[in-house]
Amino acid sequence: MSLVKKLKNKVFTNSIWMMSEKLISIFGLIFVTSFVAKYIGPENFGKLTFASSIFAIIQTIAMLGSENIIFQKTAKDRRLGEYIIDSTKIIRDLVYVSLSLLTLVYIYLFADQLTFVFSVATSIAIYFAVHDVYIIYFNAILQSKINAYCNIFALVLSLIVRYCIAKFQLAVELLSVPIILITMVPFFIRKYLFSKVRIAQGGVTQEKIDRYRKFMIGVGRKLVFYSLSVAIFTKTSQLFLGIKSQYDLGIYTVAMTLGNSFYFVLVAIISSYFTQIYTEKNFEQSQNMVAKLSVVIVGICLVVMVFFAVSGVYIVQWLYGTEYTSVNDILLFTVLVTLFSGLSTVAEKYLLKFNAYDYLKKKTLYLVAFNIVLTALFVYLWGLKGAITAILITEIMSFTVFNYFYKNGIVFDTQKRIFLLSTYRKNTFND
Fold it and tell me: What is the percentage of the chain residues whose pLDDT exceeds 90?
């Protein structure tokens, strides 16, 4: 396929826009939070991360698995996706606000003032992220360029504010402002644009709200555990490390931020091409498509690993300073974690094609239990290195063994196809 034809392909073009949007988000995260990390040092940054880990888990619970349902349903029926977005607002609000307030009370009572201030800012920022499901909607309708434009504006604004705070040596607490802006600004822009492009104009009737709310609660009870897996695999290590050593947690967080910084590329490619995989009716064809997608994920991760092996030391020094030099000891391992996390995402999204909600619920329950026990033991014995080892083993198990019990091992079959030449003889992605 020529480059011109590829650029005309809506799926390919959407992948580029999704990667751009996620790249902007990652830059915003790194450049806004690195200034905070450098200023307050690894130990205080560890305290902030401990609070952020709790809010991230609350975010996942509040979403009730709706991010996966919204994407899948919108890709198939745009109007249905809009109904689900409208119907789940109140659920997300009630769950997130109630749990966040309890968390903030705990932090206020047991942490220092600076950590509490940044925790409040983080909770506000994540509140907007919880309600910014419009980003999923625009990705699903292949309009990721809207997300990219929104995030560019928010990033520029946040960096200007951050620069002014540093330039005029204002109170460090004011760094809370760019933390909030990075999610608040794109939320309001996307919300406005959603109201203009939605098909189901005039709002949703109470009857439909009740119907789809019941649907989401029913499906969400199964999917929320699946969604929690993504958060818990990383956050379990942070929580156990936070209890053992705030300093180690600060180092771990920086390493995971950098090692996971290219995950947006994997998500963009996976999400865009799954719009085709979900609509592919030929089983053999879909199996090969998943295998080839997995090879793409591996290739990208190997390139990133080489990049960090060569330049990781300089990047850490430039962004975070000399206090964070020990990040380099575990940086390449965090890239491996991202590799298997991406491969696991491919497998799990593929299982959703077969409506494997019950299986994913059971899988995640067992996997989370495995992860908690493994992380608690490894962190107790080996601290920081134990934490990164535990999450790596968990991601490998999530990608392999824990997927093999569904429908006579269809995931194992896709993985075997990675090594078969017959998989690559014919292009299985639609042009």
Answer: 34
